[in-house]
Amino acid sequence: MTIETLSSKEVYRNRWMTVREDAIRRQDGTSGIYGVVDKPDFALVIPYDNGAFHLVEQYRYPVKGRYLEFPQGSWEEQADAPPETVAAGELQEETGLVAGRMTYLGHILTAPGYSTQGMHVFLAEELSPGPQRLTPEEGDLVVTRVTVEEFEALVLGGRIKDASSISAYGLLRMKKRLP
Known about the structure:
By secondary structure, this protein is α+β, with helices and mostly antiparallel strands. The chain has three helices and ten strands, in the order E-E-E-E-E-E-E-H-E-E-E-H-H. Strands 4, 5, 6, 7, 8, 9 and 10 form a seven-stranded mixed beta sheet that branches. Strands 1-2-3 form a three-stranded antiparallel beta sheet, with no helix packed on it.
């Protein structure tokens, strides 16, 4: 099925995203609109060593709650930075960890029904500690280490609700056997 874009107008912009409204024509000739959130892709890192993950917990303003998730982010000021560079940077920034080995697991669309954003998923292993470099938005960030079994229990218990973290974990489980 194809949908023809008749016109497009920007309705909102900030440094993290643009929202646009597109007038469209469907294949059957009917018209409609799409609201689209344009956001750059981000990198998500799964820090894994000795049977455990390193998660971050922070307050997420839109949902008014603190949740655990894998380190993730984008660099608005360097939108053309390679995903592996962003992944390594986000890992060190949020956790203080440096990976001796980074493995690319794949690209996942995060919400293709309304957003252009996707995520590049990396597995970080052979981890060594270093200093965190938190941004003002991450000032309340806490790092927690959990086993694979604890991770799954936290998902089932509603402490991990981040779709990006859960889908990245699913991708990891399909690509690598965890002890």
